[in-house]
Design brief:
Helix content: 55-70%
Distance between the termini: 28 Å
Oligomer: single chain
């Protein structure tokens, strides 16, 4: 094991672990994006439900990891994150009214979604 400092992630094994955590988060994101827009059973999560409970938190965690530990995100192309954003926002726009949210919530929630994706795209761009 190579260590270059006393910090929690200042050694090869800890950085390898961080890599696995980031890889798992990416897998969770892609799994959510593969879900249907609407579901017909209580056992299944739609892309929106999975997005709120897994996808967006996973992107936020990735942002925090990359920003805090100055790590890259697998050279993930910004175009891929753009596709994720378009897929999720399309689903959001298509079904959000079915949840009967207040207009203010609907607008602010969409802004948070966009800001989360934009933050992640910025991190991906900086890794290039």
């Amino acid at each position: 094991m190579g260590a270059w400092g006393v910090g929690v992630f200042d050694n090869d094994n800890a950085l390898d672990y961080l890599l696995h955590v980031k890889r798992d988060l990416i897998e969770r994101i892609t799994e959510c994006l593969g879900r249907p827009i609407r579901v017909w059973t209580l056992e299944e999560l739609s892309i929106i439900e999975c997005g709120d409970s897994v996808l967006l938190p996973s992107i936020e965690i990735l942002c925090l990891i990359c920003e805090t530990y100055h790590t890259r995100c697998f050279n993930l192309p910004v175009e891929v994150v753009d596709e994720w954003q378009q897929r999720f926002l399309s689903a959001y726009d298509e079904v959000i009214d079915e949840y009967r949210p207040k207009q203010d919530y609907k607008i602010k929630r969409r802004e948070v979604i966009v800001a989360t994706f934009e933050r992640f795209k910025k991190i991906c761009r900086e890794a290039d």
